[in-house]
Specification:
The complex is a heterotrimer of chains A (558), B (299) and C (311). With 558 residues, chain A is an alpha/beta fold. By secondary structure, chain B is mostly helical. Helix content of chain B is 71%, strand content 0%. Chain B is elongated and about 80 Å long. Chain C is flat. The chains are: A alpha/beta (558), B mainly alpha (299), C mainly alpha (311). Chains in contact: A-B, A-C, B-C.
Chain lengths: 558, 299, 311
């Protein structure tokens, strides 16, 4: 007898411009205590499928066209609203991707925590509070009595997610649905949260549906996996089968898109230094930022008048010509500030920057502008890095015309060849950014960055916002273009596997400092610092057997 | 190694927008909103009539017919006459010139000041922004109505002064809206990209910021006009706005109130025209808001 | 939180001073004095009156002595109604206007919020279109049009309700209150609808649904708090609007309130009366705006923290 049996689930969205078939004839079975992973890229329907089980999809555009979902002898899809309400949050619980927006900012977390108990188990507030406090301890929050009266914005992302988990589990449900619970979190926090889910699952024998776009994340926790694409289940199977003997083309593609392996080692000792930074220091006033525990911890100097945070704490390094220099860190490490200060998009409080032996901070203003064409940046968010009111042609032409690298007569030729370089059809020139997908927009952003043939490019998390298969393409594009135009690159990312694939040397940052800086191969084989090892240990391995080994080691360490 | 095929379409839950710039997209969306288009037509008609009034009005503006007195609508006088025998249709047409002119011009004044102030504050950021917005906050707290009344009483009912006074009230909210929009845009990466290209501040504002602020500005201006017209009508009703011999709809309504019981059409028709104009402007504004902001769709 | 309120309070004082000073000098700048309207008053009498009212003193002296009186709570004698002080007139008119404004505000908030929330919970249905269309009427038909029309219909044709006075005949408070409050009810209705619509699409409402909470809990406990913030922020300007709206309503319905006195004083160049009522109204408006600001910040825990840590 299975816990949940879904047959032929079909969900459509009816909008003004047509029908979108979000889920097509999805069927699966879930046993008690089992962990099922649903993996897919955006638009695969993985979230919609789970939401529709609990009637959480917006109903005017959305409609469940057909299907059955048998849970406890009743069909969830045809239950009366009141009966379904009794099951939601009680026997089937769900946690979402972004804990900050999923918690009510106007109520204390304690208040939100006791609600399921009060309404489902009909207990008194006092009893509910007791249960809530023990649950908070169980999910690993210290000082539960204090936390009970906190508001969501006073906690870090990881803590908020723990609260969400506590809220979901407080009624001891039989099934927990996790919708990308770790995507918004740092790598190390991600590992902790996953471990927490596993621990609780074992203790209370809860079945888990784990939704993710990242195959690597689910390798260690899933018993079975469903791979979805465009609303359909492409492949279903037990974890080992999916990873070691995938049957469909798409699954194979997903697996191969995960960056693996290292770059071929190159010798840069003969090359000259292109960029040198010396003791960079940057302060941010602390009050302005959201109350982030990690940033808070990096208080090394507390100015008596105002509280400051050191985003960059005496950072120094060299980058040689032709190198790809990787910078890795979690949020609050200062890696983004590093990129922005080098490009002089934000001010620097102390330190020097030398580019081709010229001091960037002391340049005469005439040279400042011409220096710009040698250094460019690729940004993280493809949806905000292009001006929505400009055509692709204008976006790509702007740098060329501004720096007088092309005239009105030959600009068309240049722009079209640029479009070829980035792998888009020439007709794109007339279109506007909103007509393109995330990956395509990122190509355009890359095109804009290389238009002036800069010697140095900073890529700030250029693929973090993209789907896995698209990530692979964009990384490939970046590599090709860097080699073709002989560019030097600083590649910033939180994802060590991506950086491993591209970079010659890697700098690991934490709390504004460079914790370790070495050749890629050295970092991965023999990292010396504790933090580096922690980061390495937290990277999800897309290899179930390796994951199990790692978990056993961790378990035995306790 | 990873293959790199050409490129792939991405399926999302928002079906692909129709090709074209945001303006043409917006226009297509607006056309689907029947109410907004109807409002646009009505407004167009009223504006054209207002401009052509001296040519097409059935009677002279001052033409009195004391023997006639106030008569209800008839074939000679479609909207009746007032106590002096003046044709109401004519008076309403002339009144529309003033009311609409005040509406558009004062909104224009508010628009210019508000956009300049708001974008300067928003783009400068930091202390300049804080200072400029503090001024806005303080002015916002002032009881403007009272000041306007005082001004009108003291300096007489000067049309120019009226424009300026009304514009002085309305620019505050426009400044706030523009500043908010500029702040949002400033945080977008493409502004940083423009900075990293080395573009000057002025170029960035002109080419990257202003085009992206246009849509809320347009929407809000369309919604400012009715509140300006209301303000003018309010003042005229109290006897503090337009002076006779000129008239506006507000003034006509105030005359109508005096003789409301005996000659209800004297208040009904000016009121009707005022209300229809306000309705149309509001519906148009709402429609524009839905059409130009793709995220704001409600389904 | 307390210090934040205190700070805001102190910041309001310069505003008040500006208002008082500006009004003082503006009024004095007007051509013609309070007595020039009387054509048949001999010049010697005018001179005597001016001396009595201190109008012959240099203007700075007038200003300082006015401020001095003000601090002692004296608004000075009325120029128009000899023998009566502004204080008396304000005391007479204030309760009436205050009551009118209060009732209108209650009407506006109660009707506005309930209709707006009701509409917002059932978007794009008849329950949405109907209230929103009605509210559009409330916004587009101004009080000085609505009032007379209602007087015409309810008072004269149907003779259901009295059309003038306040507190004299039973039911005479109904029409004025509706006339004043309806426009604001309409606007608040739209604000509430917008606010609720926006809140309901937020993630934390989805979480509340996912927890299986009953619908009334989701609406009243989770949604309303965030959804009504624009309404709370609007209450400050709404109050200012209600006060100025009272000018018109009191005129139409012949209500002996402060608003009507103000308009008359403005026409009659009754300096002290104008000053007195302006200051009075302004103080009220500033206080109310302050209150609305403070409550807005208090309602949002994030802002509360921010202001607690800042200085």
């Amino acid at each position: 007898m299975s816990l949940l049996s879904v047959e032929d689930l079909t969900v459509h969205f009816h909008s003004r411009n047509g029908i979108i078939k979000a889920v097509k004839n999805l069927s699966f079975v879930l046993d008690y205590g089992e962990t099922l992973a649903i993996v897919g890229e955006s638009g695969s329907g993985k979230s919609v499928a789970s939401y529709s089980l609990l009637d959480l999809i917006p109903k005017p555009p959305g409609k469940i066209e057909s299907g059955k979902a048998i849970f406890n002898d009743s069909d969830l899809l045809t239950l009366e609203a009141l009966d379904l309400q009794k099951i939601r949050g009680n026997e089937i619980a769900i946690i979402f991707q972004d804990p900050m927006s999923s918690l009510n900012p106007y109520l204390t977390i304690g208040e939100q925590l006791i609600e399921p108990i009060i309404y489902h188990k009909k207990k008194s507030r006092k009893e509910a509070k007791g249960l809530a406090l023990s649950m908070l301890t169980e999910v690993g929050l210290n000082g539960p009595d204090n936390k009970f009266y906190c508001f969501p914005h006073e906690l870090s992302g990881g803590m908020q997610q723990r609260v969400m988990i506590a809220m979901a589990l407080i009624t001891k449900p039989k099934l927990l649905i996790c919708d990308e619970p770790t995507t918004a979190l740092d790598v190390t926090t991600q590992a902790q949260i996953i471990r927490l889910i596993q621990k609780i699952q074992k203790k209370y024998k809860i079945a888990v549906i784990f939704i993710s776009h990242d195959l690597g994340v689910v390798a260690g926790i899933a018993d079975r996996i469903i791979v979805m694409k465009n609303g359909e289940a492409i492949e279903t199977g037990i974890t080992n089968d999916i990873f070691y003997s995938p049957k469909t083309q798409y699954t194979k593609k997903l697996l191969s898109s995960i960056p693996r392996g290292e770059k071929e080692e190159k010798n840069f000792s003969s090359k000259k230094v292109l960029l040198r930074v010396d003791n960079l220091v940057k302060y941010y006033p602390a009050n302005q930022d959201a109350f982030n525990w990690q940033i808070f911890k990096s208080f090394s100097e507390i100015n008596t008048k105002k509280r400051y945070v050191k985003a960059l704490d005496s950072v120094s390094f060299d980058i040689k010509k032709g190198e790809i220099f990787g910078v890795v860190g979690e949020s609050g490490s200062g890696k983004s500030s590093l990129g922005k200060t080098i490009l002089q998009l934000t001010s620097l409080d102390e330190g020097q920057i030398y580019f081709s032996d010229k001091n960037l901070l002391n340049l005469p203003s005439s040279e400042k502008i011409s220096m710009r064409k040698h250094m460019q940046m690729i940004f993280q968010d493809p949806y905000s890095s292009l001006n929505p009111r400009m055509t692709i042609f204008d976006i790509l032409a702007e740098p060329l015309l501004y720096h007088s690298l092309a005239t009105n007569t030959n600009i068309q030729k240049y722009v079209l060849s640029l479009i070829d370089d980035i792998g888009l059809p020439r007709i794109s020139a007339k279109k506007y950014p909103h007509e393109f997908s995330g990956g395509q927009r990122q190509r355009i952003a890359i095109g804009r960055a290389i238009a002036t043939k800069p010697e140095f490019i900073i890529a700030d998390e250029p693929v973090s916002a993209l789907d896995v298969t698209v990530q692979a393409q964009i990384l490939e594009l970046i590599l090709n273009l860097t080699e073709k135009h002989n560019m030097t690159m600083m590649f910033i990312s939180h994802d060590l596997s991506v950086v491993r694939y591209l970079a010659d040397r890697i700098a690991v940052m934490q709390y504004g400092k460079i914790v370790e800086l070495n050749k890629t191969s050295e970092i991965f084989s023999s990292a010396s610092e504790k933090y580096t090892k922690e980061l390495l240990g937290a990277i999800p391995l897309a290899d179930p057997k390796e994951e199990k080994k790692r978990q056993n080691i961790i378990m035995s360490d306790r | 190694m990873v293959e790199a095929p050409k490129y792939e379409e991405k399926l999302s839950y928002r079906p692909k927008d129709l090709g074209g710039s945001l303006w043409s997209d917006g226009w297509i969306r607006l056309k689907k909103n029947k109410l907004a288009i109807a409002s646009l037509c009505i407004l167009g008609f009223l504006c054209v009539t207002a401009v052509l009034t001296p040519i097409i009005a059935p009677y002279g503006y001052e033409e009195q017919n004391l023997l006639l007195g106030a008569v209800p609508p008839s074939s000679d006088h479609w909207l009746g006459t007032d106590v002096f025998g003046r044709d109401m249709l004519t008076r309403i047409m002339y009144g529309s010139r003033i009311s609409l002119a005040v509406g558009f011009i004062a909104s224009g004044v508010a628009l210019c000041i508000g956009v300049l102030w708001g974008s300067l504050a928003g783009y400068s950021g930091g202390r300049i922004d804080a200072f400029m917005m503090r001024i806005v906050d303080i002015l916002y707290a002032l009881p403007f109505m009272i000041f306007i009344i005082l001004l009108m009483v003291i300096f007489g009912r000067n049309l120019l002064l009226l424009f300026l006074a009304i514009g002085a009230v309305e620019w505050l909210t426009m400044a706030r809206i523009v500043r908010g929009q500029v702040l949002t845009i400033k945080q977008q990466d493409f502004i940083e990209a423009a900075t990293s290209l080395g573009l000057s501040h002025w170029t960035i504002v002109r080419r990257h910021i202003i085009p992206n602020t246009l849509s809320p500005v347009i929407v809000y201006t369309t919604l400012t006009i009715p509140s300006v017209m209301l303000l003018e009508a309010f003042l005229s009703f109290l006897g503090l706005g337009i002076q006779p011999p000129q008239s506006s709809w507000g003034l006509l309504i105030s005359y109508g109130v005096e003789t409301m019981e005996e000659y209800p059409w004297l208040i009904f028709f000016p009121g009707l025209f005022l209300s229809i104009t306000l309705f149309s402007l509001n519906f148009l504004g709402d429609g524009l808001r839905d059409a130009l902001d793709p995220r704001a769709s409600k389904d | 939180m307390f210090y934040f309120a205190l700070r805001r309070l102190i910041q309001s004082i310069p505003v008040l001073i500006i208002v008082i000073t500006a009004t003082f000098f503006l009024v004095r700048a007007a051509p013609g004095g309070p007595f020039s309207a009387e054509k048949n008053v001999p010049p010697e009498v005018v001179k005597a009156l001016e001396a009595q009212y201190k109008l012959d003193q240099p203007i700075w002296q007038q200003y300082t002595s006015y401020i001095n009186d003000l601090i002692h709570g004296q608004f000075g004698p009325s120029f128009r109604y000899p023998g009566r002080t502004v204080n008396e007139l304000i005391e007479a008119g204030l309760p009436v206007t205050a009551e009118l404004a209060l009732y209108a505000m209650l009407l506006a908030v109660f009707v506005g919020v309930s209709s707006g929330v009701y509409a917002g919970l059932r978007p794009n249905s008849i329950h949405d279109y109907l209230p929103m269309s009605l509210s559009m009427i409330g916004i587009c038909v101004p009080s000085f049009l609505m009032g007379p029309l209602m007087v015409l219909f309810f008072g004269i044709y149907m003779e259901w309700l009295p059309i003038s006075g306040w507190g004299n005949t039973p039911g005479d408070k109904i029409l004025p209150t509706i006339t004043l409050g309806l426009g604001y009810a309409a606007f608040i209705s739209r604000l509430s609808r917008g606010g609720i619509l926006e809140v309901m699409s937020k993630d934390y409402i989805r979480t509340a649904r996912a927890k299986g909470l009953p619908a009334r809990v989701i609406v009243f406990k989770h949604a309303l708090r965030g959804g009504l913030i624009p309404v709370v922020a609007f209450l400050g300007p709404a109050f200012a609007g209600l006060l100025s709206g009272s000018f018109v309503v009191e005129t139409i319905f012949q209500i002996p309130g402060l608003g009507r006195f103000y308009v008359q004083a403005a026409f009659n160049r009754d300096y002290t009366m104008i000053l007195g009522t302006t200051i009075f109204f302004s103080t009220l408006i500033i206080m109310f705006n302050l209150l609305s600001d403070i409550v807005s910040v208090w309602l949002d825990p994030k802002l509360r923290d921010q202001y607690r840590h800042n200085k």
